[in-house]
Amino acid sequence: MTSDSGVSDVLIDGPKEAAATFLFAHGAGAPMDSGFMNRMAAGLGGRGIHVVRFEFPYMAKRRTEGKRGAPDREPVLRARWIELVERFGGGTRVAVGGKSMGGRIASMIADEAGVRALVCFGYPFHPPGQPSKLRTKHLETLRTPALILQGTRDAFGGRDEVPGYGLSPAIRVEWLDGGDHSFKPPARAVPTEAENLERAISLAADFLLSQGG
User: Fold this and answer.
1) What domains does the chain contain, in order, with CATH numbers?
2) Is this prediction's pTM over 0.90?
3) How far apart are CA 25 and CA 33, in angstroms?
């Protein structure tokens, strides 16, 4: 993991000479260098994916000011995504995705930006305990090839719920057995958390490479 000398607000993993770049956004509550983000980025980078992590304005402000504020409003989050896509060569040069909220916003700009592919690590289909408040309307017509990696016991949408959502045929969902929103299973469960994380990395890497980067 390195910071890019020309772009100080991102973290870089993997070979820069890769065919395309995977722009990888954090979730609502943790920064781009959280344990989960570090593990995914390192694993993807080790499989030949050029990974670029970045932060939304509210998270960057937390880092500089040390104050914990709420996430930015949706237009600000979307604008930050579009800015990063353009900075790294435009939609034909990048795939996009993220953890939870980061992946959700990526899915909202994917078709507009014309990106190569989308990968969501734990999609927040609805708020925990509020299954009627779905965040799936745009996913019904998504055209971008997409992979959603989801824990079977994710409180934001588990295996007993998601198959009934009527998602676009462009979306493939892969399940991590016993996993919560970060793919962590109950104690002493099999597969283990480490095994779930490794499988998520492998599935995401294979999918991104199959889409030309």
Assistant:
1) 2-210 (3.40.50.1820)
2) yes
3) 10
